[in-house]
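Duplicate of #3305? Posting structure anyway:
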């Protein structure tokens, strides 16, 4: 049952991610991103990381996506206008993409070695206690740097919103 759920939600995640890229309107892209975040939360649940799954839903699927939607509405972004592609992009785009994918697969295959199967629900590192321990010991500096970056982004959004009002 776990394998079937994994295949279903992994497929939903990939389809929503592809839809996110090909959408013309930013609100539709943001809704596709919510689909990706929700399916990732289910994948975390399947792996036994309940705390990370709930944090994924609450923080990313909720708060960050609301911030994205408000920013899109604040900027009054409309649908993307079609532009003419260069001749180089039309001729070399697909072959270069396929070469990049082949190189990427080769590098991953040569570097990883034999893969092992995933045991759903066997990982015990996703508890709130363990995450808190790692967050405030081993990953304290990145945590603080990200909090400062978020503060700078909030100040920038306030400044941009203030200029538009004036």
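Output from current build:
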């Amino acid at each position: 049952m776990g394998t079937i759920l994994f295949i279903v939600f992994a497929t939903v995640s990939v389809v929503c991610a592809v839809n996110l890229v090909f959408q013309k309107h930013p609100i539709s892209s943001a809704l596709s991103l919510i689909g990706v975040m929700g399916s990732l939360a289910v994948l975390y649940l399947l792996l036994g990381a309940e705390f990370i799954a709930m944090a994924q839903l609450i923080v990313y699927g909720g708060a960050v996506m609301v911030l994205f939607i408000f920013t899109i509405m604040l900027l009054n972004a409309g649908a993307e206008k079609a532009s003419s592609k260069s001749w180089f992009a039309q001729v070399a785009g697909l072959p270069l993409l396929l070469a990049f994918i082949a190189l990427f697969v080769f590098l991953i295959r040569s570097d990883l070695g034999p893969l092992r199967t995933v045991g759903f629900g066997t990982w015990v590192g996703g508890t709130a206690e363990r995450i808190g321990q790692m967050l405030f010991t081993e990953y304290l500096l990145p945590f603080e740097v990200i909090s400062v970056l978020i503060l700078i982004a909030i100040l920038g959004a306030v400044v941009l919103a203030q200029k538009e009002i004036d």
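Confirmed duplicate; merging threads. The radius of gyration is 20 Å. The chain has six helices and no strands.
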